[in-house]
Amino acid sequence: MSSTDAVEQLIERDVFEPVDADGLRPTESFREAVDRHRRTLAERDPDERSAAVAELADDPETTDTFEAAAVTDPDFLARYVALRNRTDDLSPAQALTLTVVIGQFESGTPRADGAPEAFLPVSGEDLVRLVKLHERCVVYAWREDCPPCDAIRSDFDELFGDEPPGDLLLLAVYGPDCPRLLDREFDVSGAPTTLFTLDGRVDSRFVGAPSTEGLETEIETLRERTPPSAE
């Protein structure tokens, strides 16, 4: 899901509203819902918040998802609940991705000029959350003034166009914005680096610019791999 697609979906669902020719903001009703759920979740102990989200969103399966990923941030969880309660046509994975986009309007939009078209630009913290919460991800870490980065971006644009696949979450992160986090969480120390994650863990990686055929092969391998949770 690209940023443009995500924003369009949020406008259609009355989560965002235009404020001028180029600006957007969360609707008043959505902000009120987030504030209400944030207060409720903040009153719970961190280890009880997953169960609270399941109750508030009427989605029992969510409990295991958030517990396994150790996601307890009340701001993130409150946005997720508010979104789920007004959209019954989204899968949990779609809702999680849109929750990150909503949060970007509060924390600041991450740098996106080097991201492939089908990839969602994210901050380091949101990257960690989404990798933990999604079964299969392709993560592209890039930097500016980097010819190999430009080559990989072009390859990804050729492979995916501007339409993300339904079975993979495509994420792009600007490495210089969060080098310590990338090193600590994913053992990434330079760009370009491409990660292929399965059940929240790095399954394989490319450091530098692989061939287009190499990318295609690794993507298909990721699709075919059985997640550890299903074994």
From TrEMBL:
Name the domain of life.
Archaea
Q: Where is this region: Disordered?
A: 21-51
Please list which residues make up the signal peptide.
Answer: none
- Thioredoxin domain location is 87-224
Coiled-coil features, chain-numbered ranges: none
Spans of biased composition, class Basic and acidic residues? 21-50
**Could you identify this protein by its name?**
Thioredoxin
